[in-house]
Amino acid sequence: MQIYVVQPGDTVDAIAYRFGVDPATVTYVNQLEYPYPLTVGQALLILDNQEILTRPGLVTNGYAYPFITQNVLDETLPFLSELSVFSYGFTTDGSLIPPALNEDFMIESARTAGTKAILTLTPFGPDGKFNNTLIHQMLINPSASNNLIQSVLNKINEKGYSGADVDFEYILAEDRELFANFVADMTRTLNSYGYQVSVALAPKTSSDQKGLLYEGKDYRLLGEAANKVLLMTYEWGYTYSEPMAVAPINKVRQVVEYALTQIPLEKITMGIPNYGYDWPLPYEKGVTRATTIGCVEAVRLAVEKQSEILFDTTAMTPYFYYEENGISHEVWFEDVRSIQAKFDLVQEKGLPGVGYWQIMKLFLAGLIYVDNAFVIDKTPTVESASWKSTNGR
């Protein structure tokens, strides 16, 4: 596997010829649309003319809502060892609230693909947002906590899930230990029936980090309580932030390195975003609102606007600018280079897995684990393109 960055004058056919591969493989893997236009700076994953390898030697998890299309689900599942169905809610007395749409087809598709289906538990209020009052009321009521754990167990048994993922956000600082105890109780209960429990963690870099996202989550306690954790290493760039990378690798590294001081290595999986943001300019704090954009959609937008895709070598993330209706825009997203940087960090630290938020839009090149790939940022000769990494997959 190799990563090639498009240069002026490149075409898919010419690139495929230089690398000695089938143009159809290039267009399929990179989800290029006919007539396959390219833009300068676009990163392409180049595979040999062989079957695409799936399921690397890592735990690979992907979150999905029950309104995912069957096609996207079927295309993605072969790359996942776990599918986290998003999500079940609950009431203050610990009763489960099912997803708005029935998720049975997701569980059955996962079973067919040999992927574990995971029940995701979230504390959503009536407004569809994380509700820390709901969390607090459940945690301070032992009867409600026990009822919720039993309800989760019953639903796992009923539906055929393989475990549960506890995704609570904005936990009050005063509930930090209660929350860890709740996760520990759920883990003991579900483990006794052969099911796993994971917990999603906001991206902390220190134990005393301030902020509603961080104070209620104790990395050490939760690392002890759950079978594994997912570091939500994304959302530095977000809807109301200034334009920047969603998951800059230098920031992701800080979170991973802190987590390794608090949580056993074998329990840590690292989050990878499958999306970007499009900001109108100029940016005004508290006013400007970015629009979420899919990674493949971002590239197609750059091609449409004939924008050169640039690459930030500190964040290891692509970005570009364009204009529409007299308004300038700045777009940051993920491509195969930024995904490779994240896999490199996973490999460097020896982490056992990764988790994608989320898989609702297909990003095929981002799912393929590129082991020791190299980037060619100039037009290669036929001779140089024939070189292959001995560690490549």
Number of strands: 17
Unreliable parts: 378-393
The tally of helices reads: 13
Mean pLDDT: 92
The structure class reads alpha/beta
Shape annotation: globular
What's the story with the biggest beta sheet? 8 strands, parallel, barrel
Strand line-up of the largest beta sheet? 3-4-6-7-8-9-10-16
Q: Which strand-content bin applies to the residues?
A: 15-25%
**What oligomeric arrangement do these chains adopt?**
single chain
Radius of gyration: 22 Å
Along the chain, the helix and strand elements come as EHHEEHEEHEHHEHEHEHEEEHEEEHEHEH
Ends apart, CA distance between termini? 7 Å
What proportion of the residues is helical, as a percent range?
Answer: 25-40%
Write a brief caption for the model.
The chain is an alpha/beta fold and 393 residues long. The chain has helices at 12-19, 23-29, 70-76, 104-113, 132-139, 142-159, 176-191, 219-225, 249-262, 295-304, 336-349, 364-367, 382-385, and strands at residues 2-5, 43-46, 59-64, 82-90, 96-97, 116-121, 163-166, 196-201, 228-231, 268-273, 276-280, 291-293, 310-312, 317-324, 327-332, 353-357, 375-376.
How would you explain this protein's 3D organization?
The protein is α/β, with parallel strands linked by helices and 393 residues long. It has 13 helices and 17 strands. It has helices spanning 12-19, 23-29, 70-76, 104-113, 132-139, 142-159, 176-191, 219-225, 249-262, 295-304, 336-349, 364-367, 382-385, and strands at 2-5, 43-46, 59-64, 82-90, 96-97, 116-121, 163-166, 196-201, 228-231, 268-273, 276-280, 291-293, 310-312, 317-324, 327-332, 353-357, 375-376. The chain has an eight-stranded parallel barrel with strand order 3-4-6-7-8-9-10-16, surrounded by six helices. A five-stranded antiparallel β-sheet has the order 12-11-15-14-13. Helix 6 (142-159) packs parallel to helix 7 (176-191), helix 7 packs parallel to helix 8 and helix 9 runs parallel beside helix 11. The longest helix is centred in the middle third of the chain and has 18 residues, at 142-159. It is globular. The model is unreliable at 378-393 (pLDDT under 50).
